[in-house]
Structure formats: structure tokens, C-alpha cells
Design goal:
single chain, Rossmann fold, six-stranded parallel β-sheet, three-stranded antiparallel β-sheet, 13 strands, 38% helix
Length: 335
């Protein structure tokens, strides 16, 4: 960690600790909020318009709603050759596959990164969300690593990517606590496999197919010491939290502190059961602390809140993209 940030607040750790402490004190039982689904959607629209500020907490469900699916048609289209040869069934599990050599492994990762980081999502869920909050004082914390918030036009100074970024590499040397932009390498590796750009500038598979290997000379190495490179994704304690990470963590802490007594909407979208300590539990905690705060959860088959904050909560079950589109619709009339 840079000494410049050693004494700055760390919103990531502070909020996790707050959430874990609060969960232990909540009364048993969960709620799906009060009122019908339509009534809760109308209430959410009103809250978005009237609150002083909004803290958005986004998980994988938001990117899924935006069409960045890791299996099915997208996977078959761009990774069908890897599926046929190695039996890989989806993009996520492919990231852990023990490929036979580095040339094949990095060919996989070039595609993995490109199709989840360097193209726009197929559906406009992120753009719809931005349209709803762009005139508000907002901050975003996300466990997603696909950069779609910035691609949709969110202010990068209001974003905290807690778990890394598909667009960054880090060295295997723990002494090097830096990250490296990988865009140029990804484009070279895609071209080396034989991908060609379509009229929109997006790499596609030509009729003759593509290679599943890149040249040995193209295997990425650390620019500083020539060591091996890995993805900057939080998998274990080797994850590099660089100066940009600490700056965002401090900005998140400052935002929460400055707005802690205001009419704040904690808007959780698509957060699953894998990482509730990063977004869900902290959002419950700060809502319970502030009677003016409102907690909203948009999730497919997983929209709920503690009984303790039921009256302050909005829980809407369904596809987040559909809900966001409806909230943006001119046909949605408020009473």
C-alpha cells in the first residue's frame, strides 16, 4: 500500500465491519418489504426523485441483466472451440481451467477480458441506471470487474471497484504493488488469434475460425521486472490494492460519512449470496442507523431485508434491467 493512503479512511473495511456487527444484532427473520410489487416500484421512483443522495451497490446480477451472461449463446459464440476441446461449460469456470500451456491459457484470457471488459453490454441496464441517478449526488460500490459503469458514462471519481478490474494486470512478485493496463495487449492477442473487427469495431470470429493459442512472444510479462503476470482480481491475499483502489476506498468512506444523517437511498442491485459482507450487510447497517435512510433491493428471487428495517425498505423481485427500464419509462405515472 502506498504510504500516501496509509492514514486515509478505508471504506471497504469500515463498511464490512459495520455490516458484520449489525447482522449479529438484527432480530431473526427476513421480510420482502411492505405493499405490492407495483406499490414498491412506485415508492422507489419517488425515493429516487426525492432523496438527498444515492449509494448504489451493484453485483453480478446487474451485469447479467445487461446481457453480460457467462453461459449460453454468448459463451457458445466466442468460446465454442474451448468448450469442444476442454469441456469448459461457461466463462467463469474457464478462468480456473488448467490449460496445457501459457500460449493457450492467455489466448483464453484475451477473449475472457475482451468480451467482458472492452465492449459495451448488449442491453442498456447500466445506461438506464445512469439516467435515473445522473442528476443526484451518488456514489457506486461494486463487486463487478467489467468496467460497465464507466462505459455507461458514470463519473469514475464516484466509482469503487472493490474486487479488481478485468482491464488490469498485476505481477506475481508481491513486492510490486502496482497494476498495469492491459488494453493494448488484449487487442494484440485477439488479432493474433485471428479475430477480425466488424463494422462497429467489435472483434468477431471469421468464417475460417480462429486459433486457440497466441505466440509465445506475446505472453504478457511484468514491465518492471519481467516476472509473470496475473489478473488483478480478488481471489486471495495476493490481490493488489493499488493507489487507485485506496483512493476509491477513501472516497467511499468520505461519502458515507458526509451523508450519514441525510435522506439517503441505499440502492442494492443484483447482489448475490457470495459477497453479502461487501454491500448487502453494510447497507442494512447504515439504514438501521439512520431513520431517514431507505434501503432498496432489486434482485431476481432474492429481494429481502431484515425485519428490523422493513418499514424503511423496498424489495423488488425481478430482472433488474426490466425494473430499471420501467422506472425510466415515460409511461410510469406517479400518483
Amino acid at each position: 500500500m502506498s504510504s500516501n493512503y496509509a492514514n486515509r479512511p478505508n471504506g471497504y473495511l469500515e463498511m464490512i465491519q459495520k455490516g458484520l456487527s449489525a447482522v449479529r444484532s438484527f432480530h431473526p427473520g427476513l421480510s420482502v418489504g411492505t405493499g405490492t410489487r407495483d406499490e414498491q416500484i412506485i415508492r422507489l421512483k419517488k425515493e429516487i426523485q426525492s432523496v438527498d443522495d444515492i449509494v448504489i451497490g451493484a453485483g453480478a446480477g446487474l451485469s447479467t441483466a445487461a446481457g453480460l451472461t457467462y453461459s449460453g449463446e454468448r459463451f457458445d459464440k466466442y468460446f465454442g472451440d474451448f468448450a469442444a476441446r476442454f469441456g469448459i461449460s461457461d466463462i467463469y469456470s474457464g478462468g480456473f481451467y488448467p490449460f496445457p500451456d501459457n500460449e493457450t491459457r492467455w489466448a483464453w484470457w484475451a477473449r475472457h477480458i475482451y468480451y467482458n471488459r472492452y465492449i459495451d453490454a448488449p442491453k442498456p441496464a447500466y445506461q438506464k441506471l445512469r439516467a435515473l441517478v445522473q442528476d443526484k449526488d451518488y456514489f457506486v460500490i461494486t463487486t463487478n470487474v467489467d468496467h460497465q459503469f464507466q462505459r455507461a458514462g458514470f463519473d469514475k471519481k464516484r466509482l469503487f471497484y472493490t474486487q479488481g478490474d478485468y482491464g488490469l494486470f498485476q505481477s506475481v512478485n508481491p513486492a510490486i504493488q502496482k497494476t498495469y493496463d492491459n488494453r493494448e495487449w488484449v487487442m494484440q492477442a485477439m488479432q493474433a488469434q485471428g479475430f477480425v473487427r466488424d463494422s462497429a469495431g467489435v472483434f468477431q470470429i471469421p468464417q475460417g475460425g480462429v486459433s486457440m493459442r497466441i505466440p509465445t512472444a506475446l505472453i504478457p510479462k511484468c514491465p518492471d521486472d519481467g516476472s509473470d503476470i496475473i489478473m488483478n482480481l480478488r481471489a486471495d491475499d495476493s490481490f493488489v490494492e493499488d493507489e487507485g483502489w485506496y483512493e476509491a476506498a477513501a472516497a467511499y468512506a468520505d461519502f458515507i460519512r458526509i451523508h450519514k444523517n441525510l435522506h439517503t437511498l441505499y440502492l442494492e442491485i443484483g447482489v448475490g449470496a457470495n459477497t453479502p459482507v461487501i454491500i448487502k450487510y453494510p447497507f442494512w447497517a447504515v439504514t438501521a442507523e439512520n431513520p431517514k435512510a431507505v434501503y432498496a433491493c432489486l434482485n431476481y428471487d432474492a429481494a429481502f431485508c431484515p425485519k428490523q428495517i422493513e418499514g424503511q425498505s423496498i424489495c423488488i423481485d425481478g430482472d433488474a434491467g426490466d425494473i430499471l427500464e420501467f422506472l425510466c419509462s415515460d409511461n410510469m405515472k406517479l400518483p
